[in-house]
Description:
By secondary structure, the protein is α/β, with parallel strands linked by helices. The chain has eleven helices and ten strands. The strands form two sheets. It has an eight-stranded parallel β-barrel, surrounded by four helices. It has a two-stranded antiparallel sheet with strand order 8-9. The N and C termini lie close together (5 Å). The model has no long low-confidence stretch (mean pLDDT 96).
Amino acid sequence: MYLSICTGxxxxxxxxxxxxxxxxxxxxxxxxxxxxxGPNPHGLASELIKDDAKLEEFKNExxxxxxxxxxxxxSGNPLCPGEIGKKHSDTAxxxxxxxxxxxxxxxxxxxxxxxxxxxxxxxxxxxxxxxLPCDKPYLIEAYRYQWEDVAIPWWxxxxxxxxxxxxxxxxxxxxxxxxxxxxxxKKLRAAVGETVGINLDPSHLMAFGADPxxxxxxxxxxxYYVHGKDARIERGLSDIDGIIDNSCVEDxxxxxxxxxxxxxxxxxxxxxxxxxxxSMGGYKGVVALEMEDLTMSVExxxxxxxxxxxxxxxx
Length: 315
C-alpha cells in the first residue's frame, strides 16, 4: 500500500502550493478534487476538459514534481432534485471524462440521495425504519422510489459513461447518502455491476458503530480505494445522546462523535490490524489521507495522520 492526500485538505492554497506541501511530506500521490461539493480551487473538471491550455498546465505542475494522481474526486449529490442534482450529475460525467483524458482509472464519489417522491425537492435520508406508521407505512414506497425510480436508473446510465472512458467508481459510504454502509453499497453494486466498487472510509463506519475491520472482510474484492481517516465517539456525550448526531461539524465540543486525525480516535494497534486485514483480502492500493480534524490546525492534523499511517500501513 502507499499513501496519498486528498487535495481538499489544502483548499486555501493554489494547486502548485498544495503539491509542494504534499511533496514536503515525502508523498508523491494526490487525490484531486475537481467537482461536486464546492469549492474546488485546484481546477474544475468541466473547465479542464474544455481548455487544453489549462489541462496542460495542470499536468505540468504534477510532472515537474514527479507526482501522480491516485484518483479524481467529485463527491456530491448527483441524485438531488433540482439545480444541485443537475450540477453534481454534470460534474460527475465531466470528472469521468477528465479521468479518461488523464489515464486516471479511479474516481471517488458518493452515491447521491434522492427525494422521497417525484414532487419533493428535498433529499430524504430514511434511516430508522420503513414500517411506520403501522396503518400506512408510506416510507416503504419512498424507499422503493429512491432506489428503483431514481438511483439505479441514474447509475446504470452513468456506468456506461465510465466504461466508455475506462474508469471505475469508488463510492464513499457517507452519512446522508443512499449508500452509507456495507449492505447499501452491495445493493447498488448488485444492480449496476462491478464498475462500481467502494472507497472504504473507516471514519464513517466508526461514527455509526460499525467495525471497519469486519466491513473490510465483508467487502473482499470490492474495495477499489481506501481513505485514511479516523473518528472518535466522544465519551460521556454519546452515553447520554447516542451516536446519531445531526449538529454542525464545527460544534466539536458538544457533538457525540467527531472526525479526528488518524490515531486520535483509534490507536495504532487498531490501524495495524485494519491494514493487515485489507492486505490479507488482496487490497494493495492507495490509502488517501482526508484530514477533517477541527480540534487542531490543518498542518498538525496532516503531520499527525501521516505519522500514524506510515507506522501502520501494510507496505
